[in-house]
User: Fold this.
Amino acid sequence: MDFNELLAKAREYLPPEKVALVEDAYNFAAEAHQGQMRKSGEPYLNHPLQTAMILAGLQLDASSLVAALLHDIPENCQIPVAKLEAKFGKEIAKLVDGTTKLARAARQAPEAMTKEAQAENLRKMLLAMAEDLRVVFIKLADRLHNMRTLDALPTEKQLSVAQETLEIYAPLAHRLGIGELKWQLEDLAFSYLEPERYRRITRLVTARRTQRENFIAKVSEVLRAEFDKAGLKAEMSGRPKHIYSIHQKMERYAALGKHFNDIHDLLALRVLVDSVSDCYTAMGVIHSLWRPIPEAFDDYIANSKPNGYQSLHTAVMYLGITPLEIQIRTRDMHHIAEYGIAAHWRYKEGSRQDMRFEDRVAWLRQLIDWHRELSGAEEFLESVKTDIFIDQVFVYTPKGEIKDLPKGATPLDFAYQVHTELGHRCTGAKVNSRLVPLNYQLNNGDVIEIMTAKGAKGPSRDWLNPHLGFIKTSQAKTKIRQWFKRQERVENIERGRQLLEKELRHLGVEVEREELAHLFYHSNLNDFLAAIGYGEITTHQVAIKLAAQQAPAKTAPEVAPAAPAPSAVRVLGEGNLVTHLAQCCHPVPGDKIMGYVTRGRGVTIHRQDCYNVIYESEKARLVPADWEPTDSIYPVSVEVKAWDRVGLIRDITTIVAEEKVNIAAVNFTNHEDYTTSTFLTLDVKDLAQLSRLLVRIEGVRAVISVSRVGDEVVGKTSLRKKSR
Ligand code: MN
Assistant:
C-alpha cells in the first residue's frame, strides 16, 4: 500500500487543510523511519501507514491519523516527544505520548509483576483512555496491523501476542463498541491460538455458503413483500458470523451435547430501517409471519448496551422449522454498532458535544471520575473489576499476583492460566486457605493455592466433560485436549481404529478408511482415528454419515431394494460356502437363483434366467441355490430429533409402517429448546432396510437428525439376532 491510498481515504471526509497535516506527518515519519525494516522485511514506514489507514476506515479525525503516523517515532527513532510537540503541537504530542506509554506498560511480562504494578498498568491504560479515547483507538489499530503481520514473529511470540489480543484488546474493542475491530482482532488471534480449529470452521462455513445465501435470499424476498404491504422501507442483508463467534457458539453447543450440524443460524438476517418506530413495525411484521422464540427477544433500543449498542434482536421459527436470528436497527444505530465510540470521533465540526454520546457511555464518565477519586491501587482495582470487566473475576496467587479470568472460572482454569504444567499436575485447590472442589466457581478477590502431587497422572478426562463444570476457559480446555492428544496419540489412534472397525462390522459396510476420514474433513487417516479415539467424533456420527452416503438418491422415484447380505443365500446341499451376488444380473430375494462355483472365490449367485447361466458351457459348475428364509430380525434403537410440531410422530410412524417394519417401542422427550427426541425401537431385517428407513425419516418435515442410539438410552443396539 502506498500513501496515496491513505490520502484518497482521508480526502473523502477531511477538509483540505487537515489532509495537508496528514501529508506533513507522513513525510516526517518517512524520514524518521528511513532505512528501518520490520521483521517481515517490509519498510518500517508501512506499519504506521497501515495503522493510520485502519483509523481512516473508522473516519477518525486528522489528529488521530497524524498521531498514528508518528506513533512509533519516540520508541524507534530516538526522537523525543518534545520535538514532535514543537512540530505538530500539544494535542498530537499527547496522543503519541499516551500510545507510547501504553505500549511500554504492555511490554512487561505479567508474571513478573506485583499486584501494585499490575494495578498501575491497568490504571495507566484506563486513564489514557479516559483522558483521550483516541489513544486507545490508535493502540487498537496498531495491534490490528501487528496481528495482520504476526507471521513474521517467532511462534512463541505469536502465541503470547495473540493471547493478549484475545484477552485484552478484543474485549476492549468490544467495550468501546467497535464491532469492526473486535471481530478482526478475535479472528486473527484465534487463527494463531487454535490454527487447526480455525481452519476447520472456515472450511465448514465455506462449504455451506451458497446454501445459506440462497436461504437468506428466499427469506428476504418473503419479508420484502410483507414490508411493502406495511409501507415499510427496509434494507436487508445476511450477516455471516465470524469464525471466532462460531467457535464460541460451537463450544456452547458442545456443552449441550450438540454438533456443528445443529447450528442453523450461522447466518443472521439484518434489517436496516429509517426510524425507531419503523424498527418496532418491522418486528411486528416479522412476528406475525413466523413464530418468535420467546427467550431470544432483546430490546436493546429501549435498553441500550453499556457500550452504546442499540438494536432489536429476535429469533423466529422460519416456516416453523428453521430458527432464524434477526437484528433490526436504524442506519444510525448500525453506524454505532460498527464503529462504536469511534463514531462520535468522526470528523464533523462541533459534533464532540453530542450529549447522547455522553449518556450512552456512562461507564466512560465514571472512568474519568475514578481518575480524581481513587487513591489506593486496591481500591482502584476493586472498582475496575466490578465495572469495566464485569464479566471477569480477579483472583490472586498466593504471592499476591493478580490473575483475571472469565466469570464462572474454576481453580483449574486458574491453574492452567498460571502455567500449563501446573494445570496438568493439579490434584486439588485451596481458596482462601480452605479446601474446595475443583469445579468451585471463583469469586473476586479469592486467593488460590493449587496443590500438586509428584508423579500426578495428568489431567482427568472428566475435566473435559462440560456437565461436570471443571473448566470454563477455552484455553484450559485446549491445553487438556492437547495433553490427551500428545500423551495418548498412539493409544487414541488404536482405540479409534478398534471403535471404527467394530462399528463397520456392525454395519456390515466396507468402505475406504481414507475416504471416510475425508467425509469428516480429516486429510490424514491417523488424525481421524485419533479423533474417534479421544471422542471428538463418535461412531454414531460415522454410522449416520455412512447411511447417508449409501442411501439411494432421494430423487429416485422408485427405491430399489438393496442387495441382501450374502449370508441370506443358501447353496443347497452344501455347507458354509462363501457366496457373492453376481454383478451381471443383481439377484434379489424372491428371484429364482442358481450358484456358480468359481475358482477360489466361492460361489457366485445368479438369477436362473441370467444370460451367463443359460449359456454357461461347464454346466457341472452350476449348483442349485435358494434364499435363506429371512426369519431373522434385529431390534435397533433410533433417536429422531426434531422441532416439535403437531403430527410429527404420526408422520414418522407412517413411514415406518410403509416399510413394513414393526415398532417394538416408542418413547419421546420434549426439550426446552422446542425440540423433541423420539426414541423408536425398530425390528429391522437388515442394515440396508435400516439405512433406507433412517434416510426417509430424515426427510420428514421438521426433523433435525436421526441416529442410532447407544445402550444408555434404549438398550443394546448391536445387530443381535432376535427370533420372530
Ligand atoms: Mn506500532
